[in-house]
Amino acid sequence: MARQERAVRTRRAILEAAAAVFDERGYEAATIADILARAGVTKGALYFHFCSKQELAQGVLDEQFVEGGVPPRESKLQELFDVAMVLAHRMRRQPLLSAGARLSLEPEMREIFGGGSVPGWIGVVEELLAQAKAQGELLPHVNPAETAWIMSASWTGVQVYSQTLSAREDMERWVSALYQHLYPGIATPAVLARLDMAADRGDRVVEEIKLLEARAQEDCEDEAEIGAEAGAGAVAGAVAGAGEEPARDAAAV
To answer: What is the CATH number of domain 60-209?
Structure first.
């Protein structure tokens, strides 16, 4: 178990180092040597987890969907907004997300990674919109697939503008404003009135996620402790039973 945990930490350290290098230098200029130096691991450790620079970059792209997850909401439009705001919050704090955006949007990357994470995000948005429509949150004319493409492209445009003009310092403000402009055109009035679309929503959801993760960790530790105590009790019982057996045999003789 300890070996597995070390492997997970090493893989994460390599991905974060690769993301930082890709974000700073771009895919073509980044080298394995740069990534090794940033991660502080051996070449063997890196190649144990990733066979090539391309596989490393793909790992960075895949991590975007892990980092962008939020707790499920009863309102799927609220859940979609929360996803958008958590990504905006983390984009300027976590190189994994920032590098993923660069790898997805650089024109020369299309031949290597297709659309990068762009098709995946369109799919995430479409799925949440489809769920929202199924439970009556959307106006009748809304096409989830078409709207997902427009919303994803709009979010990306806000990200690029914010990066260009303010190093993403105002990104959460503008993502919030984007959805406040878009949602009245797709949401029913009753649902729209209940949505929390404040600019600090991402901060609050990230704190909620941290609390949930801490509780889950505590539950795992409690279960492990209970399991260890049960195992120790079983061993003790087995030892005691083994000690009693000869006494019963002697009495029988």
So the answer is: 1.10.357.10
